[in-house]
Amino acid sequence: MGAASRPTSGGCSGYPAIDSINRVPSVLAAFLALAATTVAAANDGLASMRAAGVMRWGCDISGGAPFAFPDPSDPDRVIGFEVEIAEDLARRLGVRAERYSADWLALIDGLEAQRCDLLINGFEVTADRARVVAFSSPYFRYAQQLVVRAEDRDRFTSLAALAGSPIAVLNGSASIESLRTAGVPRSLIVEYDDSLAPFTETLLGRVDACLQESFIARFFAGHDERLALVEQTFDPGEYGVVVRKSDGTLLAEVNAALSAMRADGTLGRILQRWGLWNDAQRELGTERGPEVAAIPEAIGTPPADGLPWSLILWSLARAAAMTALLTVVSMPIATFAGLWLAIAILHGPKPLSRLCHGYVLVTRGTPLLVQIFLLYYSLPALGTWLGVPELLTWNKVVVGIVCLAANYAAYEAEIHRAALQAIPRSQWDAAGALGFTPRQTLRFIVIPQSWRLSLPAIINDLNSLIKDSSLVSMIGVQELLAVALGIGKASFAVPSMLVAAAAFYLVLSLLADWFGHSLERRARAVQALPEPIPR
Amino acid sequence: MSTPALEARQLRKHWPQSGQVLDGCTVRVERRTVHALIGASGSGKSTLLRCLGLLERPDAGSILFEGVTAADGPVVSNDPRVRRCVGMVFQEPNLFPHLTALGNVWLAPHRVLGLDPGEARERARMTLDRVHALHLADRRPDELSGGERQRVAIARALAMEPTVLLCDEPTSALDPMLTREVMAVLRELALDAGTNMVVVTHDMDFVAAAADSVDFLHAGRIRVSGSTDVLGTRGLDAELDRFLQRS
User: How far is B31 from B54, CA to CA, in rounded Å?
Assistant: First the structure.
C-alpha cells in the first residue's frame, strides 16, 4: 500500500482486530489484483455509470474532517470538501452522486471489484499507486508540516533542529517517505495507526514532534495552544481522483470536469469554504474565485454549544440496530450450521466427515477479516469469471452476515461436537433397542439433551459475536463501532463516543444474556407432549 | 413343534481385547415362556443378550424372531418390523432425561410406530399402568427412585409390544427392597400377561418362581439347558453346582 494520509479507523479505538486490517490488503494484494484485472476488463466504467445514472464514489467516512465525515451537528449527514467535489463532479458528468463507504485501506480493492466507479478520498498521487490505478489531474496540493509542543516552539524550528529526536507519523503515510528522504533514521520514525495519535504522543512527550500533511496539522493542532505548528512546510504532494486503469474514457471525462471546476472557481470556492485555500493551489491552475468565508466545521473545533447528544444517540441507536441485525441473523445460522457440521463430523460418511472437519480447521484457523475481504472483493471477480457477476456480487450486509455465520459455525460445530459426545452411549443403546434409527435417535433423544449442554457456550459466543460484528465495518457496513468512531473523530470526542458505543454494546450483550437464560430455562424443562387429539 | 418366539443358533462373538466371549451359543425361547440366562459374571450372558437384542453383531451364527431371520452372522437386519420384535431393559434404566415418565414411554410408539400423539399417549398410559407407574406419569426421571425408573424403563420397552422382552439384570443396580418391587412387576408380566421374556439374572428365587426354562452359561458356552428343574438336580455339571452353591 502507498501512503495513507487519512486517519484510519484503527489505533485510537485500541481494538486489536481492527488494527490487523493494515496487514490484510498486502496479504491479499496479489490475489485481489489478479481477480480485479478480470473484473476491470469486463466492462467500461463510464458506460455503466451513465446507464445507471449514478456515480458511485468511494470514501471512508470514519477518517475524520475535512475529507468526508459525519456532520458533528447532525451525524446522519456526511459532509466534507471531497463530498462537495464529488457532488459537483457528478453534476458535471450528468449523473447523481452516490457514496460508497469502506475502510480507507480497502477502497482500492473495492474500486477494482467494481463496488464503485471512482475514489475521492485523499489519495496522494504516487508512482507506487499509479502502477495499480489511474489518477486524474490533481484537485488539491498539500505539503508536509511539523507540529511540536508549544514550549519547544523556539527550539525546534525546522526538521534539522530535531536531529536525534523521535518523530511521530501516520502509519504508511507520505510523511514517512519525506522523513526518509531528509535522512531521518528509521529508528526515530514512530508510526501510529490513527491521525490523532501523533499529536497526542507529542503532547505526552513520548515523541518530540509529529509530521503530517499541512492542512491536517492545522486542522487537528491549530486550535490547541499546547501545540505549535512549525512555519516551514516541505515536500509538496497532490491528491487525485482514482479510477480503474481500464476506464480511460471515464478518466478523460473526469479530467475535463475537474479542469472546468478549477477554471470557473468552483473548486477554489470549495477549498475556501473548508479553510484549505492557499497559494499553492494556484500552481494547479485552480482559480480562487470570489472570496468565501470558511464554514465553522472547517475550523477544527468542537461545536461551541456542546455535542448534539440527542442526534448522536439516535445515530448510535440505529448503528446498534445494524449490529443487532448482523448478530440476530448470523448467530442462528451459525448455530444450526454448526450442529450439522458436528453431526457430519461425528456420524457422516468418512469423506463428508473429513470435509467438514477440514472446514472447521480452516475457518477457525484464518482471520475473520480475511474471510470478509475474500467474500466481498473476490467473489464478484469469481462471478465475472463464471459469467454471472450479479449472482456473486452481494450486498455488504449480506456478505457481513454470511461471513459471521460461516465463521461462527466452525466454532459452534466444536461446541456441538463436545456436547453430542457427552451424551452417554447407553442413551443410544436404549433408543436402538426401541427401534429408533440413528437419525431419529439424534433428532429426538440426543440433540434435545446435547442442546442443553451446548447452550451456555453458544450464548457465550453470541456475546462475542456482537462485538466481532464490528469487523464488517471494514467493508463499509455502518455498525456501532464504525459510526461511533466516525462521529468521535469528526467532533473531537472519540473517548466519549467510544464510551457511548460501549454502553450500547453492553445493552445488546445484556439482552443476549437475558435471551440466553430464558432459552436455557426452556431447555432445562422437560418437553411437554402434544395434547391428545380430542375424540 | 411350533416356531419358537426367538431362536439363536451357534452364536459366536469375540472382542479384540478379551477374546472369545460367545463360543457357539444356541438359545431357543418358546412362545409364552420366560427364559432365564444364568451364569457367573463374565460368562457372556450380557453379550449374548445384546446380540439377541441386535445391539451387537455376532461374528457368526444366526438369530430368528418367530422364524424370520434377524441376524445372519454379522449381517443384522435393518428392517424396522424385524427390529421391533425385541424390546430391552438394561441394568441401568437409561431413561431419556429430557422427557417425563410418560414422555419416555410415549416417544417410541409415536415416532417409531407412527401412532398419532393421542393414541401413543393412551398406549403409554396403559403401559405405565401395567407396571403400576401411572401415578408417576408427569415426573421427570431424576424425580423417580431407582425402582420406579426401572419400572418406567420396562413400560417403555413394553409399549412397543415386542414379541420378546429381553431383560439384562434389571435389578443389579437396585437395593433389595427395590429389587423386589421390580421383580414383582416382571413376575406379574410373565405369569399374568404371558409376555415372552429372556431374563439375565442372579435372582434364583425369580427363576424358580417365574422362569419356564433356563440356560447356564460358563466361559461363553451354554453348559446346561432345559427346564428350571435342572436347578434342583446336582451333578449335571460341576460348574453349575459351583455356581448354585455360591448364589
Answer: 19
Quickly state the pLDDT bin for A6 (edges 50, 70, 90): very low
- CB of A232 within 8 Å of a chain B CB? The answer is no
Q: How far apart are CA B39 and CA B172, in angstroms?
A: 14
Residue A83: is its pLDDT beyond 80? yes
- The DSSP code for B161 is -
Q: Which of B38, B82, B60 is nearest to B199 (CA)?
A: B38
Task: Compute how many other C-beta atoms are within 10 angstroms of the C-beta atom of residue A391.
Answer: 12
State pLDDT tens for residues B17-26. Answer: 878 889 889 9
Domains assigned to chain A: 16-137+240-298 (3.40.190.10), 141-236 (3.40.190.10), 309-524 (1.10.3720.10)
**Closest to A15 measured CA to CA, from A488, A530, A384:** A488
Return the residue of B nearest to A445 by Cα: B96
Cβ of B121 and A449 within 8 Å?
A: no
B97, B86, B87: which is closest to B131 by C-alpha?
Answer: B87
Q: Which helix (H) or strand (E) holds B223?
A: strand B221-227
Q: Which residues of A touch B137 (CB under 8 A)?
A: none
Mean pLDDT over residues A130-158, rounded? 92
Name the 3-class secondary structure at B73.
coil
Residues 6+ apart with CB under 8 A from A333: A401, A405, A409
**What is the ipTM metric for this complex?**
0.89
What percent of chain A is predicted at pLDDT more than 90?
49
- Grid look-up 462475542 returns A464
Of B99, B111, B157, nearest to A527 by CB-CB distance is B99
In angstroms, the CA A526 to CA B141 distance is: 10
Reduced to 3 states (helix: H, G, I; strand: E, B; else coil), residue B25 is strand
**What residues in B contact A532, CB-CB < 8 Å?**
117-118, 121-122
What is the rounded (10 degree) CA torsion for A250, A251, A252, A253? 50
Residue A525 to chain B, least CA–CA distance (Å): 7
- End-to-end CA distance of chain B, in Å? 34
Please give the helix or strand (H or E) that residue B125 lies within, else none: helix B117-130
Per-residue pLDDT band at A27 (split at 50, 70, 90) = very low
Q: What is the pLDDT of residues B202-216, one digit of tens each?
A: 888 888 888 889 999
What integer pLDDT is reported at residue A302 of this predicted model?
Answer: 56
Interface A-B, measured as beta-carbon pairs within 8 A, has a size of 81
Q: What is the mean pLDDT of chain A?
A: 85
Q: Decide if A56 contacts A396 (C-beta within 8 A).
A: no
Q: What are phi and psi for residue A62, nearest 5 degrees?
A: -90, 5
Grid cell, residue A469, equals 460484528
Give chain B positions within 8 Å (CB) of A433.
Answer: 53, 55, 86-88, 90, 157, 166
Largest CA-CA distance found in chain A, in angstroms, rounded: 99
CA pseudo-torsion sign B183, B184, B188, B189? negative
Q: A417 CA to chain B: closest CA distance, Å?
A: 19
Q: What gap in Å lies between CA B130 and CA B185, rounded to an integer? A: 8
User: What distance in Å separates the CA atoms of residue A326 and residue A400, rounded to the nearest whole number?
Assistant: 7
Domain B6-93+162-246 = CATH 3.40.50.300: yes
Contact B116 A527 (CB under 8 A): no
Instruction: Report which DSSP code applies to A351.
Output: H
- Is B100 within 8 Å of A426 when comparing Cβ atoms? no
Which candidate, A112, A111, A128, places its Cα nearest to that of A120? A111
Number of CB atoms found within 10 A of residue B32's CB = 13
